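[job 0412] stage=complex_fold ligand=manganese (II) ion status=START
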Amino acid sequence: MATSTLELEKKEIIRRYRGLLRDCNRRKLTQTQKKLIRKAFDIALEAHKDMRRKSGEPYIYHPIAVARIASGEIGLGTTSVVCALLHDVVEDTEITLEEIESMFGKKVATIIDGLTKISGVFDQTSSIQAENFRKMLLTLSDDVRVILIKLADRLHNMRTMDVMVREKQLKISSETLYLYAPLAHRLGLYAIKSELEDLGLKYTEKAAYKTIRKKLVDTKPERAKFISRFTVPIRSALAEQKLKFKVKGRSKSVYSIWTKMKDKEVDFEEVYDLFAIRIIIDSDSEQEKADCWRAYSIVTDFYRPNPDRLRDWISTPKANGYESLHTTVMGPKGKWVEVQIRTRRMDEIAEKGYAAHWKYKESSSESALDGWIKKIREMLENPEPDALDFMDDFRLNLFADEIFVFTPKGELKTLPVGATALDFAYEIHSEVGNKCIGTKVNRKLVPLSHVLKSGDQVEIITSNKQTPKEDRLKFVITGRAKSKIKAALKAVERIAAKEGKEILERKMKRVKIHFNTENINELLAFYNLKDSQELFYRVAQGNLDLKKLKTFTLEKGKIKKIPHRRAKKNALEELVLKTRGKSDTLVIGEELQKIDYKLSPCCNPIPGDDVFGFITIGEGIKIHRINCPNAISLMSNYAYRIVKARWTSQEMLAFLAGIKLTGIDEVGVVNNITKTISKDLNVNMRSIGFSSDDGVFEGTIMVYVQDTKHLTTLTKNLKKVKGVQTVERIH
Ligand code: MN
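[job 0412] stage=complex_fold status=DONE, emitting structure tokens
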């Protein structure tokens, strides 16, 4: 008993396979093509041999049916038939993609890979269906056969869904109505689109579907009578003109009736008889247009046309390839009837889409299909607005807040409305964003802040020299770009902070302050900064007055100094007396740290300079240079307040000195100057200012030097910089 069932099944499998071959052979298969299909069938049969469908049928029925839809109903060629037969093999059986590639080549493997990838795409919640749709569009631009075979797969599953549990039926049907049917529509597969919609409705609105379906069957004779009455005069006139033709009068689909009833809130009776009569003419390719208009003329001889309802899709076919001539005329009983006039070729395209179209253009099916694929890809890539209608008509209303833009290679990217060229750069890759120096939109150079629109093709120009800048945050709107810029800024900050940390450590050592957490915290409080990272960064950037560090250590006294150097808080008078008591020379440097003194900002003395001390009222002793412009007046008027002073030799403190430079303003001169100062001599700059006038520059730099010797070396080196004419110290 069991054996005979299996025998019967085997026979049935062969019968179905032969049916597939018959469909394929309408294109006159070569021996090689036949062998290829056979090979795919054998592999699929073997791979699925132990599998059964939910219905209990052998699994292989499904791939055979999908291949038949691909070939017979969509008009696809051998490659697609092979892929359809193998479409579930990689996902559900042991066979790998590599094996498929070695047996059938790269193209087949790529398509099957695409099919395997999108199989999971729709098993998601509806919230991410928008993203899924985008993925589907991307696959579409890879190889549209992936989508077509997927549609065939879906159609067969929908046709055989009765055995599924209710939940699954609902889920699959909603997906079908939501995405697959509109997709089939846009690809010009009207027959498949209508069937998918009807089947979708059958499971989502069971009762409504049943009712409408029954009423359609019941009213069929009535409709047939009307159609025949309507077409009688047309038929004879067309025959008289020697036109070969067929007249079809198909009612609207269940789904479209249901939608109309719902949208217009009307009963079945008010919409069921709205149908189109189709006149399909068998015409030579050169005569197509003329024949269609002849038929139009005949129709309108008998029935008055509504001038607002003439649609000429022959002169200007729809983006998806649809060609037809539509008119709405007043029929018997004062009823409007839509008449569609087209040739057989046009009708086939309307039913099956572009695949059918190419059948007429070239005999070699595979290369013809490639041409079709190319055309669809061009539609997706071409930024022309009308070609983009093709895409816009997709469920783009789902993406009302999104735009589609393309890379120079035609890859599709989705961005939110308002996204800029710089956002796009970050969408490609964070490094592309960071190194972006310019952008071209549709081949024109635009600012980074340029707002993109759907269909733009965007090219990013990068430079390795570009580093992230904070002001770029203003040019982007996507969270991704913002966070990438911030991360890049942070990274730059981290490197700078490392540098700054070293600088600070050095400085603190010079003023004998321990470089430890406690002291760093004191510094943070003093400078009002949030963390050490920022402190180090500021030090590296040079926008922290490190001179304060010195005053801070002495005035605030909060910082723990290296113990034996602890400053005493003696009164000024006491200090002076004490100093005078020992020697009448004030020794500045290590010893003088015991005394509250300041280097006068009017002449900025540095170690090595001839100096004197001046006792002030509130600021302790101020050290001036002997040749300070104020020196003479101070010494003559306040001789009693003058203290002799000299430097210790091993002075390690940094002192501020000003340098004035002049020279020829050539490229890179400022950079070379600052490099000489900071790199070659390891001197820190406090401020720098350059002005240029007719090719001559003048610059002022405030530097921290150890002593006059240090400053002399610096001056000498600066004079060597190309373009520098004079270097002098400012007093
Ligand atoms: Mn399948």
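The chain has a mean pLDDT of 78.
[job 0412] exit 0
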